[in-house]
């Protein structure tokens, strides 16, 4: 949803067809095989709408399924890992980059691989923060409890001299204030959602496929769990003015 | 050269073939017709090397010649305007963006067009700063004279409530400190050179064309003016460690 919000902000003319796998999230603790299967199912569903691009707006799914999905569909597929890696390489002055993410993302080593692929001499250190997603999903991201949880998770990183920290999970931007407070003002945080929206723009532009209409597009939202709950979350996260009445269908048949 | 430096930093495996039109720069005060002709000549020269991409690393040339060159060569052509526009749209919170550039760039309206194309409701204000390039070319970018020149040029912009200012000329990053001082800490400066390097990375990656070699590539530098002078500037700007001995050929035949 953090990626959707950024796409709506940076590319307000583009129509979005969104699928939130609310019945099976979070993906972080799941096995690679499961995440790959779920991602293929969702892509099979979305491809029916003949999108000009597919965005895997989840770090865990990107980490394990991006290459497979890229080979599998005939349209560009953008994940959230390379955008974050590129933004970090652009931001770092020391060439030493930190990465935090879910268990699945960190275990995959996908960020280190992306960073090394782009710039072989860069140094990276990563740490899984499995306590962050449950905190955000409970809506506790601005509580004092949040600060305590973030401090406990990130304390081991504070002595390391990286100057750039990739928030390698689309939930983590909600914890930006707490993470910045714990890491101090000299560490630049990279929001992979923001960076992904920008790369979507770059690729659509390169292909001459930016939307032309001046009318506000009608987005479509689908989810696998309770649509009322999803609708509430979507309104709260996207804001009434951006997305007044997100209509949500429950797509239980894909499960 | 600011773009080259960023490409070397963000994509150290990519080989660069550079042409600096030192005999005919700066392009800022020239007519659109002249800039278009010069850009075509240089692209004709560079295309012989069968590059996988062409980068027009000059705002003035991008503003007037990008679309023509894109239609003219069979490889992706990246300019420096859309990357800056996209970075500004990603950075702005108010949706009000400032742009400074050469006479040619500002007169073309290319930044306003790019911003509106991506996000129709964004507001932009622009101002030509014809005194900045001569200052940088004289090497005076850290002098007290520089601060005075920057203050005089930007003073009319200080009362406007934009939160993001695009440095719409590849010379301007040298004046970053003075510009930030004059505009105040609340205005975020967008360095189009940095942003362009990142978009080159995005597009090469999307096309599966990132360089694979782990060896340091051998870059090639060409210029239309005095090669010794150019070599000195290249060493000073790129740094000895990045580019120890840039070999420079004078290509007078293209003039």
Automatic annotation (TrEMBL), chains A, B:
<feature type="binding site">
    <location>
        <begin position="59"/>
        <end position="60"/>
    </location>
    <ligand>
        <name>substrate</name>
    </ligand>
</feature>
<feature type="active site" description="Proton donor/acceptor">
    <location>
        <position position="169"/>
    </location>
</feature>
<comment type="function">
    <text>Provides the (R)-glutamate required for cell wall biosynthesis.</text>
</comment>
<dbReference type="GO" id="GO:0008360">
    <property type="term" value="P:regulation of cell shape"/>
</dbReference>
<dbReference type="GO" id="GO:0071555">
    <property type="term" value="P:cell wall organization"/>
</dbReference>
<keyword id="KW-0413">Isomerase</keyword>
<feature type="binding site">
    <location>
        <begin position="170"/>
        <end position="171"/>
    </location>
    <ligand>
        <name>substrate</name>
    </ligand>
</feature>
<dbReference type="InterPro" id="IPR033134">
    <property type="entry name" value="Asp/Glu_racemase_AS_2"/>
</dbReference>
<dbReference type="GO" id="GO:0009252">
    <property type="term" value="P:peptidoglycan biosynthetic process"/>
</dbReference>
<feature type="binding site">
    <location>
        <begin position="27"/>
        <end position="28"/>
    </location>
    <ligand>
        <name>substrate</name>
    </ligand>
</feature>
<comment type="pathway">
    <text>Cell wall biogenesis; peptidoglycan biosynthesis.</text>
</comment>
<comment type="similarity">
    <text>Belongs to the aspartate/glutamate racemases family.</text>
</comment>
<feature type="active site" description="Proton donor/acceptor">
    <location>
        <position position="58"/>
    </location>
</feature>
<dbReference type="InterPro" id="IPR015942">
    <property type="entry name" value="Asp/Glu/hydantoin_racemase"/>
</dbReference>
<dbReference type="Pfam" id="PF01177">
    <property type="entry name" value="Asp_Glu_race"/>
</dbReference>
<dbReference type="InterPro" id="IPR018187">
    <property type="entry name" value="Asp/Glu_racemase_AS_1"/>
</dbReference>
<keyword id="KW-0961">Cell wall biogenesis/degradation</keyword>
<dbReference type="InterPro" id="IPR001920">
    <property type="entry name" value="Asp/Glu_race"/>
</dbReference>
<keyword id="KW-0573">Peptidoglycan synthesis</keyword>
<dbReference type="InterPro" id="IPR004391">
    <property type="entry name" value="Glu_race"/>
</dbReference>
<dbReference type="GO" id="GO:0008881">
    <property type="term" value="F:glutamate racemase activity"/>
</dbReference>
<keyword id="KW-0133">Cell shape</keyword>
<protein>
    <recommendedName>
        <fullName>Glutamate racemase</fullName>
        <ecNumber>5.1.1.3</ecNumber>
    </recommendedName>
</protein>
């Amino acid at each position: 949803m953090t990626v959707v919000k950024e796409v709506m902000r940076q590319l307000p003319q583009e129509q979005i067809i969104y699928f939130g796998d609310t019945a099976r999230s979070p993906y972080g603790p799941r096995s690679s095989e499961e995440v790959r299967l779920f991602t293929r199912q969702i892509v099979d569903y979305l491809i029916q709408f003949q999108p000009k691009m597919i965005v895997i707006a989840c770090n865990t799914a990107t980490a394990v399924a991006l290459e497979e999905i890229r080979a599998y569909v005939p349209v560009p597929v953008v994940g959230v890992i390379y955008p974050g890696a590129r933004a970090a390489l652009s931001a770092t002055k020391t060439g030493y980059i930190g990465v935090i993410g879910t268990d699945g993302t960190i275990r995959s080593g996908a960020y280190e691989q992306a960073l090394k692929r782009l710039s072989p001499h860069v140094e990276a250190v990563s740490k899984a923060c499995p306590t962050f997603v449950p905190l955000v999903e409970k809506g506790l991201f601005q509580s004092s409890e949040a600060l305590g949880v973030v401090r406990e998770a990130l304390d081991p990183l504070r002595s390391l001299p990286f100057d750039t920290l990739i928030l390698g999970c689309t939930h983590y931007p909600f914890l930006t204030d707490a993470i910045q407070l714990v890491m101090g003002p000299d560490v630049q945080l990279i929001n992979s959602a923001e960076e992904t929206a920008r790369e979507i723009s770059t690729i659509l532009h390169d292909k001459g496929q930016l939307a032309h209409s001046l009318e506000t597009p009608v987005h479509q939202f689908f989810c696998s769990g309770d649509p009322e709950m999803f609708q509430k979350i979507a309104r709260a996260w996207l804001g009434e003015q951006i997305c007044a009445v997100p209509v949500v269908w429950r797509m239980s048949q894909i499960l």
